[in-house]
Write a structure and sequence with these properties.
The protein has 469 residues and is α/β, with parallel strands linked by helices. The N and C termini lie far apart (137 Å). The strands form four sheets. Strands 2, 3, 7, 11, 12, 13, 14, 15 and 16 form a nine-stranded mixed beta sheet that branches. Strands 8-9-10 form a three-stranded antiparallel beta sheet. Helix 2 packs parallel to helix 4 and helix 3 runs antiparallel to helix 4. The chain contains 13 helices and 16 strands. The chain has two domains: 74 residues, no CATH class; 319 residues, TIM Barrel. The longest helix is centred in the N-terminal third of the chain and has 41 residues.
C-alpha cells in the first residue's frame, strides 16, 4: 500500500473518532438538559408520567419491621403530645375564668397509653402550676369583705337603632328614660372590665349548708378571685321583645345560628330581618369570648321573663298562631343554649303586675300561669324578680307573709327587688337582693348612683336626647 492510501485511511479514522466524540457529547448534553428540564418541571409542581417513585419521599423507602414499628411509635407519641397540648390550652382557658378546680380536674382526667396524667411530666407540671395559681386567689379578689358588697345591675332591652327609638313619637320619651343604647352598654362593659369587675351568677352568692340535725339553710358564699378583681351581677329585664317595639330600633327576637350561638334578629321597615349582636346576650357572649377573665366560671347574667306577650320574641302566648308549636320549640332550644352558656333564667311574673299591691289570689293565678306557659318551655328556676321592683314585703326583718310562703312553695328561693345601691339578705330559707337600674334616667338624672362603677359622662351616647321628662 502506497503512502497516499495510508494517509487517506488515517484521515478517515480521525474523522470517525471526532464524529464519535461529538455524538457522545451530544448524548451527554441531551441527558443534562433533559434532567434539568425535569427538575424545573417538578420544582414547579409538575409530575412525570410513568414516574411512580418520589425520590424525596421517605415513606417510599422500604423499612424493616423494626424501623416501621419505631416510626409508628414516633407518630403515636407525637399525636398524644398534641392531644395533651390541646388539653392544657383548654385548662388554661378555664383557669383564666377563675375555674381552677375545673381546669385541674380536666387535666387529671387524662388517660394516655402509659396511664394516668401523673405519668406524664408535662401534665404533672401543669397541675402543679395550676394548683400554685389557685392558692394565690383571695376571697372577692381582696376588694370586698363579703357578698353584701356585690352590686347587681339591671338593664332593659338595648336600643340598636337610635334614629328609630328617638324619632320624636309617643314612645321616644319612655325609651329615653328606661333604655340605653348598644354603644352605651358596650362602653359600660369595657369600663367594668377595666376596673377589675368579674361577672358572677346570682346563685354564686349563697350556698346551702346542711346542719347536723339534717336541716339546711342558706349562708353567704365566698368567691375566690385573683387579687384586685370584684364580683358583679348583670341582668336583663322582660326579654319578650314586645310587638310595640318592633319598629322602634330594638331587636325583634332571639335566634340560634348554625353553630348554636344565640344572636338577635332585628326587623327592617321593608319587613326583612338582619341578624347580629343587637342586644345584651350576644354582646356579653362576644365580650367574654374576647376577655375570658371577665367571667367567673363562665357566668354571664340573669334574664327575667314575663309571658303575656310571649318569650324571646316568639308569641308563645297565642295558641291560635299558625306557628305556635314551632315557636314553642324555638324557645325551648334557645333557653337550653342560654343555660349551657352561663345564663340564668328568672320569673318576672306572667302579666307584669305589681305583686306588692296584688292580693294573694292574683299572685297565685299569675305564678301558676307563668309556670305552665313559660316555665314549661324554659325550664325550672328558683329566681323571682318582682315587677316594677316592688317587693312583696318591706326591707326590714324577714319574710312572713302568705305571698312569700306561696312563692317559696312554688320553688322560688331568690327574690329580686330594685334599689339605688347594693342591698342583700341571706336568710335561712331564701336570698333577697336588690338591683340597681342602669337606664336613661340613671344616666341623665341620677349619675351619682353609678359613680362607683363608671364615669357616666364617658358612657353617654352623643346621640341620646337631653332629659325630656
Amino acid at each position: 500500500m502506497n503512502n497516499k492510501n495510508r494517509g487517506h485511511k488515517r484521515k478517515n479514522k480521525r474523522i470517525r473518532v471526532l464524529l464519535g466524540i461529538l455524538l457522545a457529547e451530544l448524548v451527554i448534553l441531551t441527558i443534562i438538559f433533559g434532567s434539568y428540564s425535569i427538575y424545573v418541571y417538578l420544582h414547579k409542581g409538575g409530575s412525570v408520567p410513568g414516574l411512580q417513585t418520589d425520590l424525596n419521599d421517605e415513606s417510599s423507602k422500604k423499612l424493616s419491621q423494626k424501623e416501621l414499628e419505631i416510626k409508628q411509635e414516633q407518630e403515636r407519641l407525637q399525636k398524644e403530645y398534641e392531644e395533651m397540648k390541646q388539653l392544657v390550652a383548654e385548662a388554661d382557658l378555664l383557669a383564666l375564668g377563675h375555674d381552677y378546680d375545673g381546669a385541674i380536674e380536666l387535666i387529671k382526667g387524662f388517660k394516655g397509653s402509659a396511664g394516668g396524667y401523673e405519668l406524664y411530666t408535662y401534665l404533672l407540671e401543669t397541675v402543679k402550676r395550676l394548683e400554685k395559681e389557685k392558692s394565690s386567689l383571695v376571697a372577692f379578689g381582696g376588694e370586698y369583705a363579703s357578698v353584701f358588697e356585690i352590686s347587681h345591675l339591671y338593664f332593659n332591652p338595648l336600643i340598636a337603632d337610635v334614629n328609630k327609638a328617638f324619632d320624636g313619637d309617643g314612645d321616644s320619651k319612655s325609651y329615653n328614660m328606661y333604655n340605653i343604647t348598644v354603644n352605651e352598654f358596650k362602653a359600660i362593659l369595657q369600663a367594668l372590665y377595666d376596673q377589675g369587675y368579674v361577672l358572677i351568677r346570682l346563685s354564686d352568692i349563697a350556698t346551702v349548708q346542711v346542719n347536723e340535725d339534717g336541716t339546711s339553710k342558706y349562708v353567704p358564699a365566698k368567691i375566690y378571685l385573683r387579687k384586685g378583681k370584684k364580683p358583679i351581677i348583670i341582668s336583663e329585664n322582660d326579654l319578650s321583645y314586645h310587638k310595640y317595639m318592633l319598629d322602634d330600633g330594638f331587636a325583634s327576637r332571639l335566634v340560634l345560628d348554625e353553630e348554636g350561638n344565640v344572636l338577635c334578629q332585628m326587623q327592617q321597615p321593608d319587613g326583612s330581618v338582619v341578624t347580629g349582636a343587637y342586644d345584651i346576650i350576644p354582646i356579653i357572649n362576644d365580650f367574654v369570648k374576647e376577655h375570658p377573665d371577665f367571667s367567673y366560671k363562665g357566668a354571664k347574667g340573669v334574664l327575667t321573663l314575663t309571658g303575656y306577650d310571649g318569650i324571646f320574641g316568639y308569641r308563645t302566648n297565642d295558641p291560635d298562631s299558625p306557628s305556635y308549636e314551632e315557636d314553642k320549640e324555638a324557645v325551648r332550644q334557645i333557653a337550653q343554649a342560654l343555660r349551657e352558656n352561663g345564663w340564668e333564667l328568672a320569673c318576672h311574673s306572667w302579666g307584669y303586675k305589681d305583686m306588692k299591691a296584688a292580693d294573694l289570689e292574683l299572685l297565685k293565678k299569675d305564678t301558676q300561669r307563668w309556670l305552665e306557659e313559660v316555665g314549661s318551655l324554659v325550664g325550672p328556676t328558683d329566681i323571682y324578680a318582682f315587677p316594677f321592683g316592688n317587693d312583696i314585703e318591706s326591707a326590714s326583718g324577714t319574710y312572713k307573709s302568705e305571698k312569700y310562703r306561696f312563692l317559696k312553695s312554688s320553688g322560688f328561693n331568690y327574690f329580686l327587688g330594685v334599689y339605688k345601691e347594693p342591698w342583700l339578705h341571706v336568710k335561712n330559707n331564701y336570698v333577697r337582693m336588690t338591683r340597681r337600674p342602669v337606664d336613661g334616667q340613671a344616666l341623665l338624672e341620677f349619675p351619682e348612683r353609678l359613680a362607683d362603677l363608671f364615669d357616666v359622662e364617658e358612657i353617654i351616647d352623643s346621640r341620646r336626647p337631653a332629659k325630656d321628662w
